[in-house]
Structure formats: C-alpha cells, structure tokens
Amino acid sequence: MSRTLLLWGSINALLAVALGAFGAHGLKHIAADAAWQTWATAAQYHFYHALALLLIGILVREYPRGIVAGRFMLAGIVLFSGSLYLLALTQIKILGVITPLGGVCFLLGWLWLVKIFWPTKRA
After folding, report:
1. Distance, C-alpha 49 to centroid of its chain
2. For 20-49, how does the pLDDT look when each residue is reduced to its tens digit (9 = 90+)?
3. How many angstroms separate the most distant Cα atoms in the chain?
4. How far apart are the first and last CA of the chain?
5. 70-92 exposure pattern, b = at least 16 Cβ within 10 A, e = fewer
6. Number of domains within the chain
7. Which residue range(s) make up the domain with 51?
8. What is the pTM of this model?
C-alpha cells in the first residue's frame, strides 16, 4: 500500500465532491450552460481518477510499478480537470490548450496499468 497515493487519492476525491457540489449548487445558477458543462466534465474526470489513485494506492504493494500510473493520473487531474475548472470560471480560452495534455496523462496512466497487468508468457 502506498500511503502517499492513498493520501492524494483521498484529497482529490474530497476536492472532486466539493467542486462538483459547488458547480451543481452554485455555478450552475450563475454561469452559462457551456461553462457549467465544462465544470461538470472536470468534476467527473476528477472523481474517476481520484478513485483510480485510491485503487492504485492499494495495489502498489503487489504491483510496485503502479506508482508510475498513479503519477500520470495525478498529473492528469491537475492538467485536465484543473484547466477545465479554470476555463469554466475565467473563460480564458487559451487554458483549453492545456486540457489535452492532461488527457494524455490519463491515457498514459491507464496504458501503464494495462502494461502491468498484461499477461506474459512464462517459459
């Protein structure tokens, strides 16, 4: 078990719930529909990947290379969800350039897990 990944997963799950609630109960009533949808997407991916961090934190003792996947997931949360939260609040369009980098980090994290769990032939 990785206490660090479990801590980051817990913090991010807390933030995802809090930010999702803020979006649903505050932002939704004052922001344009497009901004609200952007916020909702950020919160959704934030929460999914916070749960992934928790799972990886549990599995890392058995699969130590999983720590790399956890780092990719954390970077993805910051870059993908973080840029979308900021974009929804500020409408600064250039922030949208950062979002795909976070998406790539998510994909690399999941790909790393596939690599770890992919069955190999044993001689």
Report:
1. 4
2. 998 888 877 777 788 789 999 999 999 999
3. 63
4. 30
5. bbbbbbbbbbbbbbbbbbbeeee
6. 1
7. 3-116
8. 0.90
